[in-house]
Amino acid sequence: MIVAYNAFMYFMWFIVTFYMIYIVLSIVVFKHSLFEKPEKDPNYNPFCSLIIPAWNEQDTVADTIKSLHKVTYQNVEFIFINDGSTDKTSKIITKYLKKIKEKGDNRFRFIDNKDNKGKAARLNQGIEACKGEFIACMDADTEVEPGIFEKVIPEFQDPEAGAITVAVEVANKKTWLNKVIAVEFNLGLSLLLKIFSFAKVVWVTPGPFSIYRADLMKKIGGFDPNNITEDHEIAFRIYKEGYYIKNTMHARVFATMPDTFKGSYYQRRRWYSGSILTMFQHRKMLLKKEHGLFSFFIPFNMFIIFLSMGMFVLSAGLLLHKIIKNIIFFSQTGFNFFEHWTFEFNPLFFGRVNFLGMTMFVMVILFILLGLLNSKRKLSDNPIGIMLFPFFYIFYQIYWWGAVISTIIKKGKISWR
Amino acid sequence: MEIKYRLLVASLAITLTLFAAIFLLGSVLNQEREVSVEGTFSQINRDFSEMQTISLLADSHDKDLACLAFKEKLKDLDGNLWDLGSDLEKFSSASEEFKKSDYYQEQKIHFNENEVLYYLVLSNVVETCDLSKQRILYFYADRDNCSKCDDQSFILRDITLDDDKLNEDRELAVFSLDTDLDVKSIDILAKYYNLSNYPCLVINDKNPVCGIQSREEIMTSVCENNSDLNICSN
């Protein structure tokens, strides 16, 4: 068992450390390009459309409307689409849009559907109804920066950019879990997407806010209504068309995350189940040179995830075995845990596996610190989240296992909600 | 080459270098472990030679002075053997390679031979010098043949740690003898006490008992022999 564990640890270490070093090196190399802005043409103000599907968003949709009202870009239409909400979403949207119209803001439209068809279907309805040269999609529990369109549109000067993603922040950082997720988003849905966009391997156009070329969206037929992670699935078709997904760290949106672990678990389960199913759906695209590094990166990423899951099970099994063994031992001596507690430091008591573990941990810490500092974040803004983030790995495993088990049990028929 | 590919190559090179460095460090530490074990062994060998000399002195010259010297030397030997046993255990759990090395196996045999030697010397000294040191012979086998041996080792270690805490000179001497090592002296002792299933304990050369013994059972046997011991009043 120990030999298998050590062999696995060596292998896992190599793959993960390679990945971490690649990221850290990229941060150092692209340090000055992270916030680089393309030249802005003041005369280029293309018409844009923003689609916001909403299902039972009565608690957040008003703030979303208020934030859109503050958007400074004028050549834009905001299309709210109700997806048969059973709460007061429709009433709230109608009420707020009326108020805004009275203030002279005519950029808003509302399509009030009574039936529920799912997010992807509603986004497609919006794509059909909109007139923009660029189509942005946004969640109804997200707030945007006023200057977001001025920041994202110049990124389309790159003719290969099919879609632009922005930095996603957590709006509600009250619970410790959301503080940790905020760090994950700072690194994962901002910095990493930027880093990976240099390598043209960004695998997602996050639901909170992403903007696409309208002609591309119409050509590929919009979103897949049968996929539960439509924002991940569309990435495959964007690359298939020869485009790539670009990220800008200048523009930020603030998404509301579930406040409870249960809510977060269901959300993640959907994301991760969706990514497994999507990879299977587009399996023919994988490991094909004509689709670039993206087609290699996706299975590599998934491989790392499954490798870490194996590692987690093995470590948890060994730990549990050790705990049970110690309980049995200490039961023989009256549970005198602390009576004989001694600590002796001697480098000779450390083996290769310990050093491998230590370097991996150092790499993770280095990535977090370098990542946050180069993303222009203050470490003092979210100290709890930063401290707890290295241990997020445990939650991550729970989420992933939940996703894998659900996918198997439900044979891939996982619902969006 | 495009920068993204250059980064991949550079990352691979750094990872390989780091891996090689850790691998090398592991080898260096294994060598250091060997040096450390050899150092303790040579100290133990010196202790044994000196004890033999003192033993001759006790026979031919002043017995009281020799016993005083014996007592002093026993304390050193006891400590050195304890340190060696504990280091071997920690080194083997730190490095799988060290544990599997011929060197470690040889040292383990050597250590067990020394344990028997120490036991015999101590038995002799206890009689000659009328010492109150209690002796426990602990026979064990590997985990596959003895599921309770780890538990028994833990109990004995717990008692020894208590003894260490209470007394400057330990009142107990526990000799752990691995019956799987093919050490002749251990085989002879096991045959002498008619032992076949492990763990087995022989306390002060009397009544061998096999099967796991609780802390209380061991302490009762030890204290039956001498109730004035500090560990018996604890």
Short précis:
The complex is a heterodimer of chains A (417) and B (234). Chain A is of the alpha/beta class and 417 residues long.
- By oligomeric state, this entry counts as heterodimer
The biggest chain-chain interface is:
A-B, 37 and 35 residues
**Derived structural class of chain B:** alpha+beta
Order of helices and strands of chain B: HHHHEHEHEEHH
Q: Kindly provide the name of the CATH class of the domain at 35-257 in chain A.
A: Alpha Beta
What is the distance, rounded to the nearest whole angstrom, between the alpha carbons of the first and last residues of chain B?
75 Å
Strand order of the largest sheet of chain A: 3-2-1-4-7-6-8-5
Total tally of structural domains of chain B: 2
Low-confidence parts of chain B lasting 5 or more residues at pLDDT below 50? none
Give an overview in words.
- The complex is a heterodimer of chains A (417) and B (234).
- Chain A has 13 helices and 8 strands.
- Chain A has 417 residues and is of the alpha/beta class.
- Chain A has a domain at 35-257: Spore Coat Polysaccharide Biosynthesis Protein SpsA, Chain A (Alpha-Beta Complex), CATH 3.90.550.
- In chain A, α2 links the parallel β1 and β2 (76-83).
- The model of chain A has no long low-confidence stretch (mean pLDDT 91).
- Chain B is of the alpha+beta class.
- Chain B folds into 2 domains: 1-130, Methane Monooxygenase Hydroxylase, Chain G, domain 1; 132-234, Glutaredoxin.
- Chain B contains 8 helices and 4 strands, in the order ααααβαβαββαα.
- Chain B has helices at 3-60, 63-94, 96-100, 102-129, 149-166, 184-192, 215-225, 230-233, and strands at 134-140, 172-178, 200-203, 206-210.
- Chain B has a 4-stranded mixed β-sheet with strand order 2-1-3-4, with helices on both faces.
- In chain B, β3 and β4 (206-210) form a beta hairpin.
- The mean pLDDT of chain B is 87.
- The interface between A and B is large, with 37 and 35 residues.
